[in-house]
Structure formats: structure tokens, C-alpha cells
Amino acid sequence: MASSEGSREAGQMWGQGGSISGKPYFIVQYHDLVAGAPLRSSPPPLRHQPRSDASRETTRACDLVAFAHVLSAARHPRFGPGQDYMFVREFVAFLASVLLKCCKESDSSDMETILGGLASLSDELSWFKKEAAKWSVDLAGISPLSSNMEYCRFLQSLDDPEISYTVAITTFWIIETVYQDSFAFCIEEGNKTPAELLGTCQRWGSPEFKQYCQSLQRIADRCLANAPPDVVKSAEEAFLRVLKLEIGFWDMSSSLS
């Protein structure tokens, strides 16, 4: 349980700052929402209930986003590989820009972590090609849908030299963490994940990928702890944008039903 000072800070609304044990409240609340939250249509109860309309919208996003990718794949297995493949191609460019910012603003240990993620994307692209072939998806004939394009435009915007390394690495962390959370949920005991998707879930729900996400969070935590308030606010705005874009990806898939 947080101290009285921490509780007062935690009682602040999203977008107004605050921290618990030195971590920005938006990061703490994301983990509160995902940890142990069963799949449901309404938001889970919060340890510290936010009060604004924007907070409720973000709470809904947090509740859904951790499961969006796998649910999308389960309902539309022929659709997912092509759109995800195009997204990962754009993600390579985004991560290269994060690495460049790291070279200018951070230390070598961060660089090694980011390089590890960049190197893994080659394997991801190859894997999506194999999945597309398995589901008879012609990647050359796939066009990005609007939600995919919106997400990619957001990633492109982070290449701006005015965007700080802190904002970029926080964005990288939450994108990867959402992916890991979703697939880890689907391989938990008792969840009825289709047998043909278990390999996919085990790929990104693995303890190794979780450890990588935790490494990214440690970097983001350190950067945010040393950042001025305006940069922390920008990082939170990017965090919220990612959640909304993830919901857009989910809605894009659901619209094909």
C-alpha cells in the first residue's frame, strides 16, 4: 500500500503528473490494470480510481489493449499477418530513430538493449512471411488499412529531432509491453486459445520477451525519473496515444466480422 503522500499523488488524474515510489503514475496504473485483470467488457476496479472523462477512456483502453492483438488474430487469422507485417516494417524505421536518439542522449548499455530489439525484427519479418504463406495471404497484394496507417504515421512523427529520447524509449517500451502482455495472457492456464495460435502466443508471451520488456521499462523509468515535467508529460501523451492506436488496430480487425 502506498504511503499517504504516495496516495495523494496517486489520486491525481491522468495527464496531471504524480508518481508512486518514484515512477510516473501512468506506468503504475497500466500495470495495476493489466495484472490479474480478467477479460471483460467493463474496466477493472482501480486501486486509485481516476475521475476525468479522459481517464475513463484510457482505463477502457488499458483494459482492452492487453488482449487486442491475440483476439484480433483469433477472429481474423487470415487478416493479421499482412497488416502486422507492414506495421513491423515501419517499426524498424522507428526503432532506428530511437537508437539514433540514444546515441546522442544516453549511455552504451541502453544502446545494447535497443540493438537487441532491432536485431530481432529481422526474425519477426521472416516469421510473418511464413505465417502469411501458411494462411495464403499475398503480402504483395495487401494495402495498409486506415488504423494501421495512422499508427505508422505516429511512429514516423517520433523521428522528429525535437522528440526526446525519453519520449521515444517510453513509447518503445509500451508498444512491446502491450504485445507481451497480450500473448502471455493467452498462454495462461485455463485460457481457451485456439491450438493453431498457441505457437504465436508462446513466441511473444515467453519469459524471455517479458525480461526484455522489463529491461526497456528500467531504461524508461530511469529516463523519466531524470526528465523535466514537460518531458514526462510528453511521454505520458505518447503512452496514451499508443493505447488508443492499439484499440484502433483492434477495431479495424473487428470491423471485418
Automatic annotation (TrEMBL):
<feature type="domain" description="Thiaminase-2/PQQC">
    <location>
        <begin position="83"/>
        <end position="253"/>
    </location>
</feature>
<dbReference type="GO" id="GO:0005829">
    <property type="term" value="C:cytosol"/>
</dbReference>
<protein>
    <recommendedName>
        <fullName>Thiaminase-2/PQQC domain-containing protein</fullName>
    </recommendedName>
</protein>
<dbReference type="InterPro" id="IPR004305">
    <property type="entry name" value="Thiaminase-2/PQQC"/>
</dbReference>
<dbReference type="InterPro" id="IPR050967">
    <property type="entry name" value="Thiamine_Salvage_TenA"/>
</dbReference>
<dbReference type="Pfam" id="PF03070">
    <property type="entry name" value="TENA_THI-4"/>
</dbReference>
<dbReference type="GO" id="GO:0006772">
    <property type="term" value="P:thiamine metabolic process"/>
</dbReference>
<dbReference type="InterPro" id="IPR016084">
    <property type="entry name" value="Haem_Oase-like_multi-hlx"/>
</dbReference>
